[in-house]
Design the sequence.
C-alpha cells in the first residue's frame, strides 16, 4: 500500500518535471519553427544563439550585478537585436540561395557562436542561479518542485505573448503572410526581407528564454544547448515542423517521455539522447508531417 | 492624362527574351486590356510593371519611373496587382486577407470605411470573414482578390486573367463588378485576358500581343471589327 503510493508519487513527480523540461524544449522548438516557416531551413545555430544569450544574462547578473528580472528582460531584448543582426549579416547575403547553402550557413553559425562563447567565457562549467527557490510544494498529494512550476509558468507567458503577437497584431499578421506567401505579400507592399529579420529576432528572443531556463538545471557552458537542440528538433518534428502549436505540444510530449525513459529504463539517463534521435527518425518514417503538420500539397 | 506608360519594355527570363519592346499607354480612369495567346507576354508585362521580373526600357507610373523597383515599393506607389493564381493568402482568413490588402495604409478610420464599401460590392464576405480563404470557391477567391486589391486604395489595378478557370456566369458577375467599380470610383484598370470577346466588352482600349510584341492596338469596338482579331481571337 505504502509502496504503491510512493510509486505513484514518484511517477507524478517525473511527469511534472518532464513537463517542465518539455516547456524548455518547446520554447526552442518554437524558435526553430518560426525560422523554418519563414525560410524552409532549420536553423542549426538556434541552440548556440540561446547559449550565447544565456552567457550574456550571466554576465549581466554576475559582472553588472543586475537583479535577475532586469537581466532576464534585457537579455531577451539583446537576443532579439542579436537575431536581427545575425540575419542581416549572415543570412541576407544568401537570399535566394538553395536550401542546402542556407543549412551550411546555419552550421557555420553554430561553430562561430560556439567558438566565440568559448573564447569570451571559457569552457569551465558555471553555475547559473535559478530565480526560483529549490523547495517543493504539495499539489494534490504530490510534491512538486517550485523550480519546475516556475519554468512552466515562464514558458506559458512567453508562448502567450508570441501567439497573441501573431494572432492580434498587424505586424504579426504581416509576418505570417510574408512567411507563407512571400510573393503575394510583396505585391501588397510587405517588405518581406525585413519581416524575415524580425522573425530571426523573435526566434532568438524565444530561444534565449529556453537557454536561461535550462542553465540552472545543467550548468552553463558553451555546449550546454546541444542536447536541448536535439530534443527541440524531436519536439518540432513530432509536432509538425510547420506548426507552432504542434512544436509546443511536441515539446511537452518529448519532455515527459524523456523523463520517464530516464527514470524507469535501466541506464536510462544515457538513453535520453538516443531516444531523442529515435523519436525524430520514427516520426519522419511513419508520419513525416508530424502530429499537427499538414501533409505537403503542392501543385505541379 | 496617361497614368501608366510603357516605352520599349524588354524583359528576359534567363536566356529567353519574353518581351521584345512593348509600348503601351493606360489613360487615367480607363480600362485597358492586354490580349493574346498563351506565351504572348501578357503576364510578363504585368510582372515587369510590378518589378517581379527584370526589364529594360521605361515604365512611368504617375510621374515615377518604376522600372526594376521592388514589388513592395511599386505597391506602395498605389499599384494593386492581382497576380496569376489570384495571390490568395489561403491559410489566412477572409478578413485577414482584406486586412493585408490595407497593410501599407495608416489611415485606420478610412480603412474601416473601405471594408464596409468593399463588403457592399461583395455582400457574402461578412458572413464568411472567419473562414480560411482556402475554403472559398474559385469565383469567390477571385472576388476576394479584387476586394483585397481595393483595400490598398490603388490608383491602378492590374488583373491577371480574372476569368481563368471560372464558370461563364461567375465571370460575367466579376466583369460587371470591375466595370461598376471603374465607373463609380474612376479606378484605372489594366487587365490581361485570354478571353478576347469578354475583354473587348470590358475594356475601352486593347493591345494585342504576339510573342512579346504589340501587333495591334486600338479602341475595343474597332478591334472587335478587325478581320484578323476576329479570326485569331474571337473565333468567327
Sequence:
Amino acid at each position: 500500500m505504502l509502496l504503491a503510493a510512493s510509486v505513484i508519487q514518484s511517477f507524478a513527480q517525473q511527469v511534472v518535471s518532464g513537463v517542465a523540461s518539455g516547456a524548455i524544449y518547446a520554447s526552442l522548438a518554437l524558435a526553430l519553427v518560426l525560422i523554418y516557416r519563414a525560410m524552409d531551413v532549420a536553423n542549426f545555430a538556434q541552440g548556440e544563439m540561446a547559449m550565447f544569450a544565456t552567457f550574456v544574462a550571466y554576465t549581466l547578473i554576475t559582472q553588472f550585478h543586475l537583479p535577475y528580472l532586469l537581466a532576464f528582460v534585457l537579455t531577451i531584448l539583446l537576443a532579439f537585436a542579436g537575431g536581427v543582426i545575425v540575419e542581416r549579416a549572415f543570412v541576407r547575403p544568401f537570399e535566394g540561395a538553395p536550401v542546402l547553402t542556407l543549412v551550411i550557413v546555419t552550421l557555420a553559425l553554430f561553430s562561430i557562436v560556439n567558438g566565440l562563447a568559448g573564447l569570451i567565457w571559457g569552457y569551465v562549467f558555471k553555475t547559473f542561479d535559478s530565480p526560483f527557490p529549490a523547495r517543493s510544494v504539495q499539489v494534490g498529494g504530490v510534491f512538486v518542485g517550485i523550480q519546475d512550476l516556475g519554468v512552466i509558468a515562464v514558458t506559458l507567458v512567453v508562448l502567450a505573448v508570441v501567439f497573441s503577437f501573431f494572432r492580434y497584431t498587424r505586424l504579426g499578421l504581416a509576418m505570417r503572410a510574408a512567411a507563407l506567401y512571400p510573393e503575394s505579400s510583396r505585391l501588397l507592399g510587405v517588405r518581406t526581407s525585413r519581416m524575415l529579420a524580425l522573425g530571426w529576432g523573435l526566434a532568438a528572443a524565444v530561444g534565449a528564454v529556453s537557454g536561461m531556463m535550462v542553465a540552472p538545471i545543467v550548468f552553463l557552458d558553451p555546449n550546454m544547448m546541444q542536447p536541448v537542440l536535439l530534443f527541440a528538433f524531436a519536439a518540432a518534428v513530432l509536432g509538425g515542423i510547420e506548426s507552432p502549436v504542434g512544436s509546443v505540444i511536441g515539446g511537452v510530449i518529448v519532455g515527459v517521455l524523456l523523463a520517464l525513459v530516464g527514470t524507469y529504463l535501466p541506464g536510462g539517463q544515457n538513453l535520453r539522447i538516443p531516444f531523442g534521435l529515435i523519436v525524430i527518425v520514427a516520426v519522419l518514417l511513419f508520419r513525416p508531417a508530424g502530429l499537427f503538420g499538414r501533409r505537403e500539397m503542392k501543385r505541379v | 492624362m496617361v497614368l501608366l506608360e510603357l516605352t520599349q519594355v524588354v524583359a528576359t527570363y534567363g536566356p529567353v527574351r519574353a518581351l521584345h519592346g512593348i509600348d503601351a499607354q493606360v489613360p487615367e480612369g480607363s480600362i485597358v486590356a492586354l490580349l493574346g495567346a498563351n506565351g504572348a507576354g501578357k503576364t510578363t508585362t504585368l510582372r515587369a510593371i510590378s518589378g517581379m521580373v527584370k526589364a529594360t526600357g521605361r515604365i512611368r507610373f504617375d510621374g515615377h519611373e518604376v522600372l526594376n523597383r521592388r514589388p513592395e515599393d511599386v505597391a506602395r506607389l498605389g499599384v494593386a496587382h492581382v497576380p496569376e493564381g489570384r495571390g490568395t493568402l489561403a491559410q489566412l482568413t477572409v478578413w485577414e486577407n482584406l486586412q493585408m490588402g490595407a497593410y501599407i495604409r495608416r489611415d485606420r478610420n478610412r480603412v474601416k470605411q473601405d471594408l464596409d464599401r468593399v463588403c457592399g460590392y461583395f455582400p457574402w464576405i461578412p458572413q464568411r470573414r472567419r473562414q480560411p480563404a482556402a475554403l472559398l470557391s474559385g469565383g469567390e477567391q477571385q472576388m476576394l482578390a479584387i476586394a483585397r486589391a481595393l483595400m490598398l486604395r490603388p490608383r491602378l489595378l492590374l488583373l491577371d486573367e480574372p476569368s481563368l478557370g471560372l464558370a461563364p456566369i461567375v465571370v460575367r458577375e466579376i466583369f460587371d463588378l470591375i466595370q461598376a467599380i471603374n465607373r463609380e470610383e474612376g479606378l484605372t484598370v489594366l487587365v490581361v485576358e485570354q478571353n478576347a470577346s469578354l475583354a473587348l466588352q470590358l475594356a475601352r482600349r486593347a493591345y494585342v500581343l504576339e510573342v512579346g510584341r504589340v501587333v495591334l492596338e486600338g479602341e475595343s469596338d474597332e478591334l472587335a471589327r478587325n478581320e484578323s482579331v476576329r479570326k485569331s481571337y474571337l473565333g468567327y
